[in-house]
Amino acid sequence: MSDPAIQRDVILKPYTTFKCGGPAKYFAEPSSEEELVSLLAFAKENGLETFILGLGSNILVSDEGFDGLVIRIGKNMGGVSVEEDDTGAVITAGAGAPLSLLGNTAVKHGLEGAEFCCGIPGSVGGAVYMNAGAYGREIKDIAVSVTCLDDGVVKTVSAEECAFGYRTSAFEKEEDKRIILGLKVRLTRGDPDKILSYVEELKTKRTTSQPLDVPSAGSTFKRPEGYFAGKLIDDSGLRGFKLDESGAQVSPKHCGFVVNNGGTASASDVMRLIKHVQDTVLEKQGVKIEPEVRLIGKF
Ligand SMILES: Cc1cc2nc3c(=O)[nH]c(=O)nc-3n(C[C@H](O)[C@H](O)[C@H](O)COP(=O)(O)OP(=O)(O)OC[C@H]3O[C@@H](n4cnc5c(N)ncnc54)[C@H](O)[C@@H]3O)c2cc1C
What we know:
Bound molecules: flavin-adenine dinucleotide
Distance between the termini: 37 Å
CATH topology of the largest domain: Uridine Diphospho-n-acetylenolpyruvylglucosamine Reductase, domain 3
Radius of gyration: 19 Å
Strand content: 25-35%
Order of helices and strands: EEHEEEEEHEHEEHEEEHHEEHE
Low-confidence stretches: none
CATH architecture of the largest domain: 2-Layer Sandwich
Mean pLDDT: 97
């Protein structure tokens, strides 16, 4: 069995788009399923909790960090391949591939349906886990099957079995310990010029409405049933709000984003602001908003 390098006390801040958070006691990036299995065995032998990290674009890691083994599924496990047929193609992507690579591969092959993937800064694994989506489409709409590691055994599950819902899937449930290894999507052939111009249109929408030049984890809050979190926050008078000069702020550009200006805020600064936003929205609008961002470590 291969033996991947395990590092000690690795600061997680650079591995997250929020640009804050403390160290992982142990950290490793496997290059194969075999290495992943051996890392899980190491964690078990040493009684360590594990956390599977993708591109870190939907997490807030506490300043204390994570007292266990962080396994980062990155580009070493991120191959992408295309099998074309008469009407379109099936694209197979490893969990560590950026979702944008899947989207761009589809564009390059004149395949439609994955344009929304181009602007989401997560990995394929993270996108399956969260059923990532944008502009009316989500992973659920294109997924055929998902490969995962289930208690040491590689299994393929159908899209239906993934139980995709709004920013959730079967994998996201607390008790589900499966690790996503890859995704197969089915796309149909389209007009390459139209596909490209749609990608450009979505890109413009995103850059004009979202603070992409400032660290964040995207939409901080889930959309509450019947509302938009950003509108509730705006209506509560919190556009551009900050509690202090730490760097944590409700984005003046998009109220649904809490941002970390200059990457200077700590995770607890960000968390204090998140709590303040939740309390204010509840008090002023009577609606409870919950973080979409996954909280890692102790808060
Ligand atoms: C600027 C910006 C814009 C964004 N826009 C969107 C958007 O339009 N739509 C959208 O849906 N999201 C959006 N996001 C959020 C984020 O990109 C998605 O949720 C993405 O799917 C997270 O993927 P990740 O690889 O970064 O996951 P991470 O943040 O690394 O992890 C998120 C969760 O997934 C789990 N996970 C990751 N990989 C695996 C795996 N292989 N197996 C099992 N579990 C795994 C982790 O354990 C964790 O619980 C945005 C974020 C930013 C910063």
